[in-house]
């Protein structure tokens, strides 16, 4: 089984969400640090981003924040994360999230998280990104999005094969298992990107 050395985690910056999401993030962060997996994330200090960073740091793991300069200027960045990449804009940030990672992990989040996930799915469909994309569907949080993707498949906006782009899991402690259970993907995917 291939070692998962580095992952990117997409997640929320909101502090006003249910405590179950913070607990799930903590569990997932512990599973990653126990595996000595480096975590890349959006660099924030609040919400699930803050919980992710705090837990990785408490567990003596390695975490890298990636954030546009303008966000640092309004003090969104986590002051205890000592490895940062500051980018010119949000587009460059999203590119950097994917550099050298073995997987992308999506936790519950808002429009920024949705947008990052959908761009990753699009890039994987085109064979530009080929690593596992795993989605933590905690208590059905992503049911509506997953149903929308199924609708896109059933109405021929996506092909049946595109279902293998993402893997859904519900137990944050099993994040590594979800990554390993993801189906292999090739950069030849461009050949069947068109439906």
From TrEMBL:
The keyword Cell inner membrane does not apply. It catalyses: AMP + H2O = D-ribose 5-phosphate + adenine. Its EC number is 3.2.2.n1. One of its GO terms (cellular component) is cytosol. Belongs to the LOG family. It comes from Roseivirga spongicola. GO terms for biological process: cytokinin biosynthetic process. The keyword Ubl conjugation does not apply. GO terms for molecular function: AMP nucleosidase activity. The lineage of its organism: Bacteria, Pseudomonadati, Bacteroidota, Cytophagia, Cytophagales. Keywords: Cytokinin biosynthesis, Hydrolase. This is Cytokinin riboside 5'-monophosphate phosphoribohydrolase. Coiled coil: none annotated.
